[in-house]
Automatic annotation (TrEMBL):
Source organism (scientific name): Halorubrum tebenquichense DSM 14210
Gene, per the UniProt record: infB
InterPro entries: EFTu-like_2, EFTU-type, P-loop_NTPase, Small_GTP-bd, T_Tr_GTP-bd_dom, TF_aIF-2_arc, TIF_IF2, TIF_IF2_dom3
Protein name per UniProt: Probable translation initiation factor IF-2
Single GO cellular component term: cytoplasm
Binding site for GTP: 19-26, 81-85, 135-138
Lineage, top ranks: Archaea, Methanobacteriati, Methanobacteriota, Stenosarchaea group, Halobacteria
């Protein structure tokens, strides 16, 4: 066993930056990049595809006295920056998150927002260590900016008022972290970073506090990840696809983060595809040209090989079915079949359980597809089909086959509707939901289902015969027959016109006739509610022979209606209607226990 802890075998830790949409993720990355460029000569920063590599000496230059470079044998930090994927924290490497460590950016004035909560969920699920960047401290009223300074020195330069306002906001964030189940504190108070989350106040605008963030990230990586950073430098490369892109002159390419070993031009590789793993050969490894040469025509330069950790664009035949989030593996000294099995096994971990019926789910990466599936499982929404990619005509066709109306839906996370699918959607009975926040997408869908069910219940409720119990008042016979007209009081329920009515003789229901009119204070009405006194016209009976003053009558509720009322609409009807229904059912069931069941 060779000793893996030499600096030349330690790879750069991969850092993911995530957070709510306008809390400053991108500007924080730009600031780190910008200060890095001004710190080293421009040449010191290698441009990567979808990532920025900041070497240790540049970090130590930016962090000043906060860092002693001799404490570290890790080569620096690799920031992944795929702004389109706030969900890319779910990109995976060997069953874990692709990122070794994460920065959760939170606007110090705004606190936790939907995507913050979502990011926290992902970090918790993948067990990724993280620090919180409390951004925008410079917007504190009365703030006196100290450009690029460590945050504690910057805080000493503030008025008492500004300092206490900032403290209040910071403690609010620490409280929200605690609600989410993480014990946290300002980073300089944290003793054990494995037990507590460090909060770093900073400003992406003035770069104050940025030295602290880099210091904390370096320290965390060095202390807790050194073992994981030890890799076989010359071993077969392994990586994760960030994005699949068409490049002029190269066809479909995959932007990949390599986290282990080395990929060489000409290597045979296996890449996770939408149907089967893709076996192909590297035609070119592409990197952005150094900043100094940006004036040249071609934006990429070819490199012969690339070692972990790095971002690179791989050009190879047959990559158009590749998937964001899928594994990339170099075959080298193994059989192709072995590597195909490995890729399949990794993809199988992400398989989404699908059901016979349910909704169609599309997401931008495998990781976000998995996160969507988890959220829907918690909401008990079944999934018929789940795939990575934009919404295509066949997705609409599949959604239309759902046998329940509410499942004729497509939930799209971070994806577009392809142009050739637009007219299909207009002509199809399919509802499309799109959102950049997973749980809002799920909530929008749940709200839609609830409204649909409510609307269905309302139409059913309009047609259902409502239960009512009422009493003929003494001395209120206005006409004896053809039709009989009597004054009644409704005891419970709703008496509706044009319904059949009757009474119970023992447990037998005797129908006496049908209502042909209800009058309230001389006005014709369609119904009368519990407690009201009205006069009614009944076709059929004669007062004094078939019915008597003082009799209690009931609306004749058909068995099918009674069943719907009891089983589906119980919550939708009023308490006194429930009472009337209960009495009616109890009497009916004395004779036939299964009546209306």
């Amino acid at each position: 066993m060779t000793d893996h802890t030499h600096a030349d075998t330690l790879r750069t830790p991969i850092v993911a930056v995530l957070g709510h949409v306008d809390h400053g993720k991108t500007s924080l990355l730009d600031t780190i990049r910008g200060s890095a460029v001004s710190e080293g000569e421009a040449g010191a920063i290698t441009q990567h595809i979808g990532a920025t590599d900041i070497p240790l000496d540049t970090i130590s230059g930016m962090a000043g006295e906060l860092i002693d470079p001799s404490d570290f044998d890790l080569p620096g930090l690799l920031f992944i920056d795929t702004p389109g994927h706030h969900s890319f924290s779910t990109l995976r490497a060997r069953g874990g998150a692709l990122a070794d460590i994460a920065v959760l950016v939170v606007d110090v004035n705004d606190g936790f927002q939907p995507q913050t909560e979502e990011a926290i969920d992902i970090l918790r699920r993948t067990g990724t260590p993280f620090v919180v960047a409390a951004n925008k401290v410079d917007t504190t009223p009365g703030w006196n900016p100290q450009d690029g300074e460590p945050i504690q020195r910057s805080m000493e330069a503030q008025s008492e008022r500004a300092k206490s306002m900032l403290d209040e906001n910071l403690y609010e964030i620490i409280g929200q972290l605690s609600d989410a189940g993480f014990s946290a504190d300002l980073y300089w108070r944290v003793q054990d970073f494995q037990k507590n989350i460090g909060v770093v106040p900073l400003s992406a605008l003035t770069a104050e506090g940025v030295p602290d963030l880099l210091t904390v990230l370096m320290g965390l990586s060095q202390r807790f990840m050194k073992e994981e950073m030890a890799i076989d430098v010359r071993g077969p490369g392994e990586g994760t696809v960030l994005e699949v892109k068409d490049e002029r002159g190269f066809g479909a390419t995959v932007d990949t983060v390599v986290y282990d070993g080395v990929i060489r031009n000409g290597d045979q590789i296996v890449v996770g595809g939408q149907n089967e793993p893709i076996v192909t050969e590297v035609r070119a490894l592409l990197r952005p040209r150094p900043l100094a040469e940006i004036r040249t025509e071609k934006e990429f330069e070819k490199v012969g090989e690339i070692g972990a950790a790095a971002g690179v664009k791989i050009a190879a035949p047959d990559l158009d079915q590749a998937m964001a989030g899928a594994p990339v593996r170099v075959v080298r000294d193994r059989t192709v079949d072995e590597v195909i099995e490995e890729v399949k096994a990794e993809l199988a971990e992400i398989e989404v359980d699908t059901a016979e019926n349910g909704v169609v789910v599309k997401a931008d990466t495998l990781g976000s597809l998995e996160a969507m599936a988890n959220a829907l499982r918690e909401a008990e929404v079944p999934i018929l089909r789940a795939e990575v990619g934009d919404i295509a005509p066949r997705d609409i066709a599949v959604a239309e086959t759902a046998n329940q109306d509410e499942h004729k839906a497509i939930l799209g996370f971070n994806v577009d509707l392809l142009q050739n699918a637009e007219s299909d959607l207009e002509n199809a009975d399919v509802k499309l939901f799109k959102n950049e926040v997973i749980y809002q997408l799920v909530e929008d869908y749940e709200r839609y289902v609830e409204e649909k069910q409510r609307a269905q219940q309302e139409t059913v409720l309009d047609k259902v015969v409502r239960p009512a119990r009422f009493r003929i008042l003494p001395d209120h016979t206005f006409r004896q027959n053809d039709p009989a007209v009597v004054g009644v009081e409704i005891i419970a329920g709703t008496l509706q016109n044009n319904r059949n009515v009757g009474y119970f003789e023992g447990n037998e229901f005797e129908r006496v006739g049908g209502l042909s009119g209800i009058q309230k204070q001389g006005e014709d009405v369609d119904e009368a509610r519990s407690g009201e006194r009205v006069s009614i016209a009944i076709d059929g009976p004669t007062v004094g022979r078939d019915i008597e003053e003082g009799d209690t009558l009931w609306t004749d509720v058909p068995e099918k209606h009674a069943k719907i009322l009891e089983q589906e609409l119980k919550e939708e009807i009023t308490a006194d209607e429930r009472e009337a229904l209960q009495g009616y059912l109890e009497t009916r069931r004395k004779r036939d226990p299964f009546w209306g069941k």
